[in-house]
Amino acid sequence: MDARQGIGGTLTGVDIRAEIGRLRDERNAVILAHYYQTPDIQDIADFVGDSLDLSRKAAETDAEVIAFCGVKFMAEVAKILSPEKIVVLPDLAAGCSLEDSCPPDKFRAFREAHPDHIALTYINCSAAVKALSDIIVTSSSAEKILSQIPMHQKIIFAPDKHLGGYLARKTGRDMLLWPGVCIVHEAFSETELIKLKALHPGAPVLAHPECPAHILDHADHIGSTSSILAEAKASPAQTIIIATEPHIMHQMEKAVPEKTFIGAPGADGNCNCNICPYMALNTMEKLYVALRDLEPRIEIDEETRIAAKKSLDRMLAMASASVGMGDLGAARVTGD
Ligand code: 13P
Ligand code: SF4
Predict the structure, then answer these.
(1) 98-181+301-334: what fold?
(2) Which residues does 74 contact at the CB level (< 8 Å), separation at least 6?
(3) What CATH superfamily is the domain 188-263?
């Protein structure tokens, strides 16, 4: 049987794990995976991390091929930072509701309507929107980056209104928020969370800032996926409630198997509705095919890539060091 016939299903007669390992060596490839990928993908990856960690890894790897197990905007970041490398994404349809909420033409018009604002844009957006932005942030770098922007500077924050709202409340910055949401974090139910907390008194709630405020109000710790993971390890609590995509619990269960992790529930009382449907499109079979065929590849036109790289480079510099506004200067629409 032609193994290609099995794309999306079982590849009969192929030891997928062994083949992925063989192809990784043959192609001089590195496999990067986000914490929201399934355990089999996390376990075969060379590196598992949050959006900032993965951007840094993509920028510094000397592999010739990056097999990116995450969503499309993450693989695009790898291509923007490492254009000479082949970047493959197991399923090109692995998008993101935040990216979908912010089409480049609408974002450009919004920026043009607010010429005195700079655009601080969450990494969960297309390369074209990054090209129209001044500085990119991730959930783990946003606060540090905000602290380096003068208080008088007016800011548009796109596309996640919940992350933007959380940052505005925490830092006292009055930002203009784009109305996008993550459908995964939006699906947690406050009523069910209150019931779950009552069942496990003393269990801390660790939440991602993509959650709406009514969920964050019940959280004991708010942070990026890597910050939630670190807190899950460090917390003295034996039972911990996790309000983010449940596949991250795989790393927690590996690191501290003696603790109990419970996914925050959706309206139906369980956490299955909080599985990211985009991340779930990537499978071991598709990863194998991507390494075998070096397809589907991420391609970005050079003009967009260079403009997007500027805003990403600012993030990487400002996330690592105390860099001020630098060459950002006065607010203006970039990418023109
Ligand atoms: P982080 O891993 O940066 O916290 O991002 C979470 C996320 O939703 C990625 O899509
Ligand atoms: Fe996008 Fe939410 Fe999925 Fe992350 S979890 S990729 S923000 S839809």
Answers:
(1) Rossmann fold (3.40.50)
(2) 34, 51, 54, 55, 68, 123
(3) NadA-like (3.40.50.10800)
